[in-house]
Amino acid sequence: MSSRTRTNRLFSIATIAIGAVMMLAGVLTWVMVSSTLSDQKIVVADDASCMAGRTVAGPITAYCQADVINMHTLEATGGKTYAELDREDPVRETAMTSSFLQASLYTSVVAFGVALMAFGIGLVFVLLGITVLRLSSEPKNETAPEEVLV
Q1: Which of 18, 66, 90, 132 could form a disulfide with 12 if both were Cys (CB 3.0 to 4.6 A apart)?
Q2: Conformational region of residue 43, where left means phi above 0, alpha means psi within -120 to 50, and beta covers everything else
Q3: How far out from the chain centre does Cα 77 lie?
Q4: Which position has the higher pLDDT, 112 or 134?
Q5: Model-level pTM?
C-alpha cells in the first residue's frame, strides 16, 4: 500500500469518525432539549396562531408558545415592550417575566437548529469520508487514455 493510499485511508477514517461524533452529538442535543422542554409540561396556549394545545417539546411548539406569550404581553402592556414601560409601571414585571420566558423558548429553538446543523454536517463528513475511502481503494487503470483530437 502506497503512502498516498495510506494517507487517504487515514483521512477517510478520521473524517468518518468526526462525522459520526457530530451526528451523535446532534441527536443527543436534540433529545436532551426536547426532554427538558417536555419535563416542564408547557402546553401551547389555546389562542396561539399555531400548534395550540400541543405540549412544547420541539422547535415549532417552542416558537409558537414564545409567539403567543409575546401576544399576551403586548395585550397586558398596551402594546409596549419592557424597555418602553416606565420603571414604576406595575405591568413592567410581567413584561420582564415574559421576556425571560420568550428568550428561554427562543434559545431552545436555536438549540434545536444547532443540533440539526451538527447532525447534517456530521452526515456530510461521513459521506465525504466514505467517498474518499472508496476512491482511494479503487484499482487504478495504468493505461493512459487515448488523446481525442478536436
Answers
A1: 132
A2: beta
A3: 33
A4: 112
A5: 0.82
Which position has the grid cell 451523535?
Answer: 24
Round to whole Å and give the CA distance between 54 and 61.
7
| C-alpha to C-alpha distance for 59 and 39, rounded to whole angstroms | 15
The total of other beta-carbon atoms located within 10 Å of residue 142's CB is: 5
Angle value at C-alpha 50, between 45 and 56, nearest 5 degrees: 55
Does 144 have pLDDT greater than 60? Answer: no
Residue 1 burial by Cβ neighbours in a 10 Å radius (0-12, 13-18, 19+): exposed
Give the three-state DSSP class for 43.
strand
34: CB partners within 8 A, 6+ apart: 57, 58, 112
Per the DSSP assignment, residues forming a β-bridge with 55 are 43
The tens digit of pLDDT for each residue in 30-85 reads 999 999 999 999 999 999 999 999 999 999 999 999 999 999 999 999 999 999 99
Three cell numbers, residue 136: 482511494
